[in-house]
Design a protein that fits this description.
It contains 8 helices and 7 strands. The protein has helices at residues 3-12, 14-17, 25-32, 52-60, 74-83, 99-103, 122-135, 151-156, and strands at residues 42-46, 66-70, 89-92, 108-113, 136-146, 162-167, 174-179. Helix 5 (74-83) links the parallel strand 2 and strand 3 (89-92).
Length: 180
């Protein structure tokens, strides 16, 4: 699928994508820099979109690591399956609210998310964040891109520690929340 077709799909589904455009390289770099992927063995991405964050993770992760990418949009999943045919990258066409069904009891080192929590119902948000907290290993982190600093209060309900950084090099400018 071409980039223009992906953008059409993005704008056709603003309620589930929650973004005006895909993440910039600068935002992806800032997000990935919050984790030590060289030691990680199980990584989750929530909201694969066009694969820009996925590519950033793959570029940094250990060759023996496994990456599970959750995406509810089938068109995005099809494009990512073609883009990322590696055996250790699994594109999952399912809600991140079903995370535990795909982990089989395993603990996750890092969860990267670009989910639009401002647009999700309280029930879906609770399922995703509760399962994320439970799934993380003791030194793991949930790393979220968001466009409102106020979401920090939401993440504090689930995680003991939430640190925020900001980048202007994205449209719109964005926060990266690191939750532990």
């Amino acid at each position: 699928m071409s980039k223009s077709n992906l953008l059409i799909e993005l704008y056709s589904n603003l309620g589930t994508t929650g973004a005006l455009t895909f993440s910039s390289k600068a935002l992806v770099k800032k997000m990935i820099s919050q984790a030590d992927l060289s030691q990680a063995r199980l990584i989750v991405e929530m909201g694969g979109g066009d694969g820009s964050i996925t590519q950033g993770i793959i570029n940094q992760m250990h060759p023996e690591a496994e990456l599970l990418v959750f995406e509810i949009n089938e068109s995005f999943c099809e494009a990512m399956r073609l883009q990322f045919p590696q055996e250790n990258v699994k594109i999952i066409n399912d809600s991140a609210g079903n995370l535990d069904e795909h982990l089989f009891g395993r603990k996750v080192d890092y969860i990267f998310s670009s989910l639009p929590f401002s647009f999700l119902s309280k029930e879906v948000t609770d399922a995703i964040l509760s399962q994320s907290k439970q799934a993380l290993g003791t030194s793991g982190a949930f790393i979220q891109i968001c466009y409102s600093y106020l979401l920090k209060n939401l993440f504090k309900k689930y995680f003991n520690q939430v640190n925020a950084s900001f980048t202007l090099k994205n449209l719109p400018p964005a926060f990266v929340m690191v939750c532990k």
